[in-house]
Specification:
Layout lengths: L7 H84 L3 H48 L11 E5 L4 H7 L4 H10 L2 E3 L6 E5 L3 H17 L4 H30 L9 H6 L4 E2 L2 E2 H19 L3 H10 L14 H11 L4 H9 L9 H15 L8 H16 L4 E7 L4 E6 L6 H18 L7 E6 L9
Parallel strand pairs: 7-8
Antiparallel strand pairs: 1-3, 2-3, 4-5, 6-7
Helix pairs in contact: 2-8, 4-6, 5-6, 8-9, 8-12, 9-11, 9-12, 10-11, 11-12
Length: 463
Amino acid sequence: MPSSAVDPVIVLCIVTGVLGAVLVALAIMLGWSTVGRRRAADARVTAWESRVSDRENVVAAREDAVTSRESALSAKKAALADAQTELERVAGLSVADAKADILLRAEQQARLEAATLARDIEVKARQEGEQRARRVVIGAIQRMASDITAETTVSVVPIPSEEMKGRIIGREGRNIRTFEQVTGASVLVDDTPESVLLSCFDPVRREAARLALTDLVEDGRIDPSRIEAAYERARSGVEQAGLQAAEDAVATLGIIGLNPGLLPTIGALAFRTSYGQNVLAHSVECARLAALMASELGLDVDICRRAGFLHDIGKALTHEAQGSHAEVGADLARRFGEPPDVVHAIAAHHNEVDPGTMEAVLTQAADAISGSRPGARRESAEAYVKRMVDLEQVAAEQRGVDRVFAMRAGHEVRVMVLPEVVNDAESAALAQEIAQRIQHELTYPGSIKVTVVRESRATAVAA
C-alpha cells in the first residue's frame, strides 16, 4: 500500500476520539449549568422564605395591636355602659324615653315653625289677594260709566187742553173704563193742569198704555174701538222697541250665538227699573264689568260677559212665573240652550245656589259693583224717610239730648244737648257712642258724621 494514502482506521480513531472529547465537554458544560440553575432557584426560595417570614412578623404585630385596641374598646364600652346607667339613674329616664322626648320636642318645634310660616304666608297671600282684587274692581269701575233713570210706577201723558180730559173720560166714563180694561193701566184724571197720569206695576203695559193714550190725544177722536186699535199699535211698537233695544245691547257687547227667542224677554228689561237703575242698562254694565275683571284674572271672558248680561233676565218674567228672578232666569236660559256655566252663574248670583265657578263669583261681583257704586242707584222715598227717622231716633234716645237733626241726605246728624246735663268732656263721648250705635244698628251707604253741639247762654236784663 502506498505511504501517502490515509489509513481509514486511523481516521476513524481520530474522529472517534474527537467526538468523545466533545461529548465529555458537553457533559461537563451541562453539569455546570444544572448546578447553577439549582443554586439560583435555592437562592430565590431562600429570599421568598425571608420575605414571608417578615410579613408573618408584621401580621403578628398587627394582630397584637388589634387585640390591644379591642381590649381598650371593651374597657371603654364597659365604662360607657356604667356612665349610661348612672345617667339614667340620675335623670330618671331610659334611653328610649329620652329619645322619644327629644323626638316629641323636635316635632312640636317643627309644627310651631310650620304653623308660623303658614300663617305668615296666608296673611301675605290675603293681603296681596285683597290688593289685587281691589285693583281689579277699581279698574273695572273707573272704565265704566252709565246713566240712571228714575224709579217710578207712574207715567205722565201731556194733553193740549182741559177739554181733552172730558173726552178721555167719555160719556158716563165709558172711554176711561174701556181704556183701563184694554191696557190694564189705571188712568188718574185730577186737577193737574194739562196732564193725565197712568199707573201700572208692569212697565211694559204702562209704556204701551202711554203710547196708546198719546196717539188718541193727538188724533182727538176717542171711543172704545179706537182705544183698542191704538193699544194694539202701541203694544206692537213697544215690543218692536224692546226687540231693537235687545239687539242693540247684544251687538254692543259682541255676544255671539244668543238664541233669538231670548231677545223679546231681554227687550222687556228696557222698560223696567230697579232702585232707579234701568235693568237692561244694568245688565249691559254687569256684562262689561264681568268681562273686564275676567280679562284681568285670565278667566273665560265670553262666559263672564254672557252671564253678566243675562243674570237679571228673570226680572222680565217674575210677574208671570213663580220663584225668584234668579231661579226663573236660570230656567229660561237653560231652555234656550245657554252654556251650563252661564246658567249656574245666573242661578247663583244672589247666593240662592252656592257659586261653584269663578265665573259665577265674578257675576256676583259685577252685579254688586253695578248696584252699589256711587250714583248707580237711588233709594225709594219710603226707604229714605225711614232712614232719616231711624237716624234721629237713635240719637234722641241718648241722655241729655235736646234736639236731633238729620242733614245732608242722612250723611250728617247734628245733636243738640242740654248744657246743664252734658258737659264738654261728655260731649265727645256722646258723639262716639251715637256713632257706634248707628254703625251697629242701622244700614246706610257711605259714612255718617255725628256732631254734638253744646251751647251755654247767659241772659241778663238791664232795667
